[in-house]
Specification:
With 169 residues, the protein is an alpha+beta fold. The two termini are 22 Å apart. Helices cover 28% and strands 34% of the residues. Helix 1 packs across helix 3. It has an 8-stranded mixed sheet with strand order 1-2-3-4-5-6-8-7, sandwiched between helices. The radius of gyration is 15 Å and the shape is globular. Strand 5, helix 4 and strand 6 form a beta-alpha-beta unit. The relative contact order is 0.15.
């Protein structure tokens, strides 16, 4: 899969993405709501996995040619066919520029129009940045799992917000 938007290219990962991948996944602030930051060996392992099993994609800023984001887009395990999960993580230098919205909107459009998906879901423990983006994308809150998971940085129990969009057709 390769998608192009006004400013972005969404494409399969390549091992040449390792430095940019590490810049994202080794940043403690980026990973604060996800997992402990990855070291280079863990980044290389995950990137290799994504090149072999394309369930996540590189988001490249066309102007610079730099990989600035990670987009998860795959069938949600254990669910009916056509119910997919979407997720995103971006290099902190590219936050608050509309890149995540642009890429996720393109993936959702592709999923509904080209793949005929029934539903696209996303989850987060971040009510400040991710929940507003999910709502801006037209996703509806389907539930909040109260104190369902632990924050990877603080170790404290955190609410897990579950959002989804249905195919509009």
């Amino acid at each position: 899969m390769r998608l192009e938007t006004e400013r972005l290219l969404i494409r399969p990962y390549e091992m040449d993405d390792l430095d940019d991948f590490c810049a994202i996944f080794s940043d403690p602030e980026v990973m604060a709501q996800c997992a402990p930051p990855y070291d280079r060996a863990v980044c290389e392992k995950w990137l290799s996995s994504f090149t072999q099993h394309p369930i996540a994609f590189a988001v490249v800023e066309k102007q610079s040619g730099r990989m600035i984001g990670h987009a998860l887009f795959k069938q949600l395990p254990g669910e009916e066919d056509g119910i997919w999960e979407i997720g995103w993580i971006y290099n902190r230098a590219f936050w608050r520029k509309g890149y995540a919205f642009e890429a996720v909107r393109a993936l959702m459009t592709y999923g509904f129009e080209q793949l005929g998906l029934h539903k696209i879901c996303a989850e987060t423990i971040d009510p400040v940045k991710s929940v507003p983006l999910m709502e801006k994308l037209g996703m509806a809150r389907e539930g909040v799992f109260r104190r369902h998971t632990k924050n990877p940085v603080t170790g404290e129990w955190a609410d897990l917000y579950w959002y989804a969009a249905l195919n509009p057709k």
